[in-house]
Amino acid sequence: MAGSNRSGDLKDAQKSIPVGTILAITTTSLVYFSSVVLFGACIEGVVLRDKFGDAVSKNLVVGTLSWPSPWVIVIGSFFSTVGAGLQSLTGAPRLLQAIAKDNIIPFLRVFGHGKSNGEPTWALLLTALIAELGILIASLDMVAPILSMFFLMCYLFVNLACAVQTLLRTPNWRPRFRYYHWALSFLGMSMCLALMFISSWYYAIVAMGIAGMIYKYIEYQGAEKEWGDGIRGLSLSAARYALLRLEAGPPHTKNWRRRTVPSPPPRPQLLVLLKLDEDLHVKYPRLLTFASQLKAGKGLTIVGSVIQGNYLESYGETQAAEQAIKNMMEIEKVKGFCQVVVATKVREGIAHLIQSCGLGGMKHNTVVMGWPYGWRQSEDPRAWKTFINTVRCTTAAHLALMVPKNVSFYPSNHERFTDGHIDVWWIVHDGGMLMLLPFLLKQHKVWKKCKMRIFTVAQMDDNSIQMKKDLATFLYQLRIEAEVEVVEMHDSDISAYTYERTLMMEQRSQMLRQMRLSSAERDREAQLVKDRHSMIRMGSLYSDEEEEIPEPVSERIQMTWTKDKYDGDRRRRNNTPENFRELISIKPDQSNVRRMHTAVKLNEVIVNKSHDARLVLLNMPGPPKNPNGDENYMEFLEVLTEGLERVLLVRGGGREVITIYS
């Protein structure tokens, strides 16, 4: 290694090092092998095995063969030792100086300085100090294993680096020596490792521990260089191989969520859709908190967001958004990847994320998105239309969907629930996804002490007792502990309140769809509808019978008017659309009344049973096929979850499989 250690001083290192190294190894090997043969031919084996030379009066064995005097061997050994020491004393400081100059190990930076002619002064002093410590030990038997370990470790890593670079076929690895093969380096590495443990296994473990600590220090504190990292290259190659294996065949549905006895708990692969505010800050960071509690650092998590605009003009904004999301992921302890896309429309960007996130077989199978808060008050319908469009995209892609509602009330990672329940309302049997989500949450310290309750809904003609037994058996086979309760929903007449909620929903939808009013006018007309229904509800409190809808009572209001105000108000009244007068006499659609009735009755049952639950999981109904009913769909979801503090709406993708007998 002398030529490699002094490569900086060679005129043509690429030519000199291979030739000089091979000649040096050949020469020393011939000398050593000939010495073995000659010693064996000239001296008895018993004398050779006499370590301390008792058989030859404690003299050197080779001294008895020397001519003309034994002092020839002593003098020759002295000069040989001095030469080897000087060789190490000139090579090691330069190697240390090169490492320090490359800033690979930051705390060695001081040893990169030297004289103006390049002599490594500080590195030479450190090398001399280490050599002096070896001399002060004053026992060759104690120094030899230590030196052997680090020399063997050096040769081991040189061989390992050559083998890894060849196997990875990295472009910057271009050896000039034609007769090299990676198997030769691998053989040399294996022999070095074997010799380390044969010589002294405890010194070998200590040396490997020191090398490991230095590597981790370089990984976390060292500077990145243009030659890269061989271990990172190995990781990349292994990841590529694994992705190609996943891509080789279609994934089995059981691999979506596997639940077997020896395997770990199943974990969905998440795509978390985040919304950013105007300052590019995460608007609802508790979505990331929920994802971290559900995943616990396992599986795949991709955090995506959409910036509206032109990519050519928004590149810097995209980089800032990615950095903000990564910082928030680090705070919330979410291990995963971040992807921000720029699109002219938010719904198009979300569709791109759902389609293109992931790589090969490592793709998401579940989408997590927030609830569009304030959609009722918003004059812009794009917020809830984007939400419903995302629901339709996940359904078309056969992906599962989770919508945490009231996510700001969800616990942080520092909170602990010491009691309480996680309630699952299993209304639609979607392959068992609702069963597994509470189990995954309970693996996290926040939800660990919560108990699980399963509610299912039975109609009047269902056998509730048998349903409860079947569900308990199903949970037992899943190895999930939970309380089981069957809730019976009686068929009842549609109440006036349900009729009223449906009527208000349809009137609001038609009003916002047909009219283009200013903000003040819309408030006044909405207040008119509200006042009218307040009168209807007062009457419905005393009677359950259907009654005709009374005409609104007009009242004369005395106000102070200027002439301009009076003329403006009269013009606005004359410009009021005729269809608004028809809005008062509208009759609700019977299908909407039935859906609203189901939502109201189900909400009453859920609130009655789960009002004190820590978390309520509900099946999320699918959006209507006709886009004209989108706003009604949002109203149904609001009614269904009304009065609940924390709700998780879950919609299966249709490919989930829950394994029972495995």
TrEMBL record:
Catalysed reactions, semicolon-separated: K(+)(in) + chloride(in) = K(+)(out) + chloride(out)
GO cellular component: plasma membrane; synapse
Listed Gene3D superfamilies: Amino acid/polyamine transporter I (1.20.1740.10)
Main location: membrane
Record keyword Transmembrane present: yes
Membrane topology: Multi-pass membrane protein
Name of one Pfam family that matches: AA_permease
Residue ranges constituting the SLC12A transporter C-terminal domain according to the UniProt record: 285-403, 417-662
Localization per record: Cell membrane
Annotated GO biological process: cell volume homeostasis; chemical synaptic transmission; chloride ion homeostasis; potassium ion homeostasis; potassium ion import across plasma membrane
Transmembrane annotation, as ranges: 21-48, 68-86, 122-140, 146-168, 180-204
Domain Amino acid permease/ SLC12A positions: 2-259
Keywords: Cell membrane, Chloride, Glycoprotein, Ion transport, Membrane, Phosphoprotein, Potassium, Potassium transport, Symport, Transmembrane, Transmembrane helix, Transport
InterPro entries reported in the protein's UniProt record: AA-permease/SLC12A_dom (IPR004841), KCL_cotranspt (IPR000076), SLC12_C (IPR018491), SLC12A_fam (IPR004842)
Molecular-function annotations in GO: potassium:chloride symporter activity
Family in the record: Belongs to the SLC12A transporter family. K/Cl co-transporter subfamily.
Name this polypeptide is given: Solute carrier family 12 member 4-like
